[in-house]
Amino acid sequence: MPTTYDPKAAEDKWYRYWIENEFFKAGLRPEAEPYSIVIPPPNVTGMLHIGHTLVNTLQDILIRTKRMQGYDTLWLPGTDHAGIATQTRVEQKLREQGISRYDLGREKFLEQVWEWKDQYADVIHEQWAKMGLSLDYSRERFTLDEGMSHAVRHVFVKLYEKGLIYRGKRIINWDPAARTALSDIEVEYKEVNGHLYHLRYPLKDGSGYITVATTRPETMLGDTAVAVHPEDERYTDMIGKTLILPIIGREIPVIADEYVDKEFGSGAVKITPAHDPNDFEVGLRHDLPQINVMDESGTMNAEAGPYQGQDRSDARKAITADLKEQGVLISIEDHVHQVGHSERSGAVIEPYLSTQWFVKMQPLAEEAINAQKDGTGVNFVPERFEKTYMNWIENVRDWCISRQLWWGHRIPAWYSESTGEVFVAMSEEEAQAASGLNDLKQDEDVLDTWFSSNLWPFATLGWPDETSSDLARYFPNNVLVTGYDIIYFWVARMIFSSQEFTGKKPFKDVLIHGLVRDAEGRKMSKSLGNGIDPLEVIEKYGADALRYMISTGITAGQDLRFRIEKVEQARNFANKIWNASRFALMNLEGVSFEDIDITGDLSTADHWILHRLNETSREITRLIDAYEYGETGRVLYNFIWDDLCDWYIEFAKLNLYGTNEAAKSKTQSVLAYTLDRTLRLIHPFMPFISEEIWQHLPHEGETITLAAWPEYDQALENAEAVAEMNILMDIIRAVRNIRAEVNVPMSKKVDLIIKAGNEDILGIIQRNDNYISRFCNTSSFAAGLNPVTEGKVMSAVVTGAELLLPLSGLIDIDQEIARLEKEVQTLNSEVERVEKKLSNLGFVAKAPAKVIEEERAKQADYSAKREKVLARIAELRG
């Protein structure tokens, strides 16, 4: 192996090797239990961002682990056509060329979008490769491919036939710049410094007026009523009377509706059914007219009277001036409020009354609600997000699914130009057959991109083809990994659709992760210039470092602050693994896989590392199954850095460099076995470096990707070796600490005497005296139950023994007394803490017996150590 690890060379080489040999392909283990994940399809709008790195790495860890555990794994890749997002990007590109989509026409424009899609799908493939994702590309899907299109039309037709899809007039989010309806997720709410306008609406009979307030005076032109609460005594006599709408002069009624909060403001609310979703519902209850005062571009229309042709923002200024002139503008106050903006065009969203296609969500939600309540629904991780999900589906509203775009699944509805009838069908031929007409024209609109992506878990596997072998084997999926920001828009809709069309939940678990933020906790955005390009990070530090940092730095459901220093630490960790492996390989020359034998006469250190490896394997498996990635990273790091590198490899050198060939052979076996299993444990997190090293080790098989996952083995448990190693490590640490305190370098030999607390401890020390002599670097070493010492000594107390280092030429006695007195203070605090806990009757009554026993053992241990330290102080002073 080279002196240093080169990520670039290894990553390109091994990814190509994995793909060429189809190691990631599902179905190669037909007898094995299946395990499946479908990738949340990224939009074909450009480069993947750091958030994709997080979600994809978490999935890859699961898939790689399960593949090594022997499952028949499928990780199905794919991309999303992303409707308005992609169309907007292509239109921007065309504008730079001085043309619009209308100049090209629908067919030519769509050709441009398909070219864009192909270009960025290739870019996404390259990024997936750079990240090392173990995807089954043979099953890759696209939300506009023929199979998905068939599934989408099938769903639309079936829901329409059941009366769950309808066409009607409702308030929707309207983007006046893109001139299309938007989904809620495409609306960004920003805090805006606006104004609140207080207006006086006079009663027709001249008996007074009602005061209302609005943030948008331009919409008052569409007012068709003023509402008050039916129990508001201030307005009891006014209900049913008529008001005169300022400027326009239209007569509008005063109505009573419980929607009004009588404690807020004046207790009266202007009702504009065509420009506010709540007002729309009030209007339906009271059969109010729906007057739309704007056109699709946000320009005032004929209903706006004298303001016709003005932009909505200009009309606001003009109307405000006219209201003031008429004496009905009472006041204007500053008002900070949340205003919806189009995520794509940046335009202020208009709540707009429009004829669109909708899905009735309540009937679809009922089955999903019942499943969660009876325990057969989806398992949310963390559990708290189930409440978020349930809160939304229990209050779900109808979903506007039509978009005034050209890129997407065109709505499978045809209109007769002669009769106006609507025919919904799988194809134009079917629609014509059903209608008996030949003047049909297909709906110009397309479906919301979520309409296709909510079928993703099962449509990608061949549904609605009931004979699909992939659907039968890999559905439901085992887990969905996604962010908390799309629980409503994607997760919930996938559950609805799956329950409705397959009778099954789409996945068993849904793992919710947070957002990746910058080091200061801010959301990454172009405007702040704080985005992180994952490819730049990979170029500098390697994919493994980025993968390890981003996956083990999280807590489920919590946001992650991205700090480049953490990536550097992960790279240093990778280098530590590399260097330890190089050392091991230099000492494994001539050792073949068949030579490895970890049974028989092993050293204490050999037994200990096998025990720790076994223990770590069990814990890592448990943590991955529980999706506890952060804790997994801690356990892996501690085992590899501390146990394997800092302790075992150092201990192994005694046998590897020694003259006892039998002991050397055993340690070589243990080292090869331990490193092999350690690489397997780290592989899902760091696939490239683990493959590179593993291929140099004695091994069997073509790739670590298919190597068996380390399983817990009771035979490797060795509590005695652990106890012995703990004593040895305590002794070595204590001697090193003493050296550090008195500034004695490790290169200088010291005399060491150990006073063992009992025969068992003495036996451990004597059996392992070679480790103690070597790692304490002693010139002389003796151990006994009551060893003789001459002169004054430095001391340290460890569990079961006292360490004595003769002071001659080593330390200043006064400084040593001061040090020991500080140690007494520390031990006093520990004894006091434990005694306080044990004297607490409540604790003793409630705590498990084992916990109380452990606390009493601590009390005895701390007390014994304190007595020994006090005795040393007295000895030094004497």
Q: Explain this structure to me?
A:
The chain is an alpha/beta fold and 878 residues long. It is built from 28 helices and 29 strands. The strands form ten sheets. A four-stranded antiparallel β-sheet has the order 6-5-14-16. α21 runs antiparallel to α22 and α26 packs antiparallel against α28. The longest helix has 29 residues. The mean pLDDT is 93.
Topology:
Blueprint: H1 7-20, E1 34-38, H2 50-68, E2 72-76, E3 78-79, H3 83-96, H4 101-104, H5 106-131, E4 141-142, H6 146-161, E5 165-175, E6 180-182, E7 187-202, E8 209-214, E9 225-228, E10 242-244, E11 251-256, E12 268-271, H7 277-286, H8 312-326, E13 329-342, E14 350-359, H9 361-373, E15 379-381, H10 384-393, E16 399-400, E17 402-403, E18 413-416, E19 422-424, H11 428-435, E20 440-442, E21 446-447, H12 449-453, H13 456-459, H14 469-474, E22 477-483, H15 487-502, E23 507-513, E24 516-517, H16 534-541, H17 543-552, E25 560-561, H18 564-586, H19 604-625, H20 629-656, H21 661-682, H22 687-696, H23 719-741, E26 750-756, H24 759-767, H25 769-776, E27 778-784, E28 793-798, E29 801-806, H26 813-838, H27 841-846, H28 849-877
Helix pairs in contact: 1-22, 9-15, 16-17, 17-18, 18-20, 19-20, 19-21, 19-23, 20-21, 21-22, 23-25, 26-28
Q: Strand count, sense and closure of the main sheet?
A: 4 strands, antiparallel
Low-pLDDT runs: none
Fraction of residues in H or I helices: 40-55%
Number of helices, where a helix is a run of at least 4 consecutive DSSP H or I residues:
28
Strand order of the largest sheet: 6-5-14-16
Provide mean pLDDT, rounded: 93
- Rg from C-alpha positions? 36 Å
Rough shape? elongated
Strand content: 15-25%
- Counting DSSP E segments of at least 2 residues, the number of strands comes to 29
Task: For the record, give the distance between the C-alpha atoms at the N and C termini, rounded to a whole number.
Answer: 59 Å
Structural class: alpha/beta
